[in-house]
Amino acid sequence: MIDFMKQIKVDQDTCIGCGSCVSLAEKTFKLNENGKSTPIDPAEDSEEAIQGAIDSCPVTAISWMEETND
Ligand code: SF4
Predict the structure, then answer these.
(1) Residues 63, 12: contact at Cβ < 8 Å?
(2) Selection from 62, 23, 26, 58 nearest residue 41 by Cα
(3) What residues does ligand 1 touch, defined as CB less than 6 Å away?
(4) Ligand 1 centroid – CA 21 distance (Å)
(5) Can you give the pLDDT at residue 67?
(6) Using an 8 Å Cβ cutoff, are 65 and 8 in contact?
(7) How far apart, in whole angstroms, are the C-alpha atoms of residue 41 and residue 49?
(8) 0.90 cut: is pTM over it?
(9) What is the pLDDT of residue 38?
């Protein structure tokens, strides 16, 4: 399980909807009605699976987003 404060961001303008991230971390990503990947719940997949999905993205649309509340 990953730190729940860690969030995933998918750049909707960059994503080409190839589905790679969805197949590698299916609990974290899904394709939305526009055919683009959308983060669902990053706490449900291992950090390794999510990192694999990030690394597999052909257009580098996925990134970690650290929440800063201070
Ligand atoms: Fe979009 Fe990248 Fe996921 Fe492919 S791997 S669906 S381009 S975010």
Answers:
(1) no
(2) 26
(3) 10, 15-21, 37, 56-59, 61-62
(4) 6
(5) 66
(6) yes
(7) 13
(8) no
(9) 96
